[in-house]
């Protein structure tokens, strides 16, 4: 397999994987391109490489920066902005986990807490519902607490262990 073909395959595969960690395909493809680029790329470089519009590129770069996994860079003598991806894979995994917790797990916990506050004396179905939603809340809360402890760790062995368990 030639470099160009391997690069394209990686970008396409990372794009498909993006939906698994809560981002759209184009956003993941931009991230993949930046991650494997030896130097920061301009918006025009990204647009040309991925054949996407300026608006789409701009919107997705902004989102990637909000996730904290893409950074804006300036080069002396250049008017263009350049972009690079988080280079440390352990740090990348921590940032993705933290952002997913904020966007997905925390809102789910709020909903579970709200819906389990029903009057359980209303019926046996209501009592069962309350018990199950409280059980789910406790489980998701413990999982989120464990995730937060992992995110806060800086040792590489923890991230590697978690990634092995997830794989």
Topology summary:
Elements: H1 3-18, H2 25-36, E1 41-42, H3 43-50, H4 54-67, E2 70-74, E3 81-85, H5 89-115, H6 124-152, H7 156-166
Antiparallel strand pairs: 1-3, 2-3
Domain HTH marR-type: 27-73
Protein name: HTH-type transcriptional regulator
Organism: Dokdonia ponticola
Short description:
InterPro entries: HTH-GbsR_regulator, HTH_MarR-typ, MJ1563, WH-like_DNA-bd_sf, WH_DNA-bd_sf. The protein is mainly alpha-helical.
State the order of secondary-structure elements, H for helix, E for strand.
HHEHHEEHHH
The number of distinct β-strands equals: 3
Structural class designation: mainly alpha
Uncertain parts = none
Order of strands, main sheet, comes to 1-3-2
Query: What composes the largest sheet?
Result: 3 strands, antiparallel
Shape: elongated
**Gap between N and C termini:** 26 Å
Mean of pLDDT: 87
Total number of helical segments?
7
State Rg.
21 Å
Helical content (DSSP H or I, runs of 4+): over 70%
What percentage of the residues does DSSP assign to strands (E)?
5-15%
Pfam families: MarR_2
Keywords: DNA-binding, Transcription, Transcription regulation
Protein name: HTH-type transcriptional regulator
Family: Belongs to the GbsR family.
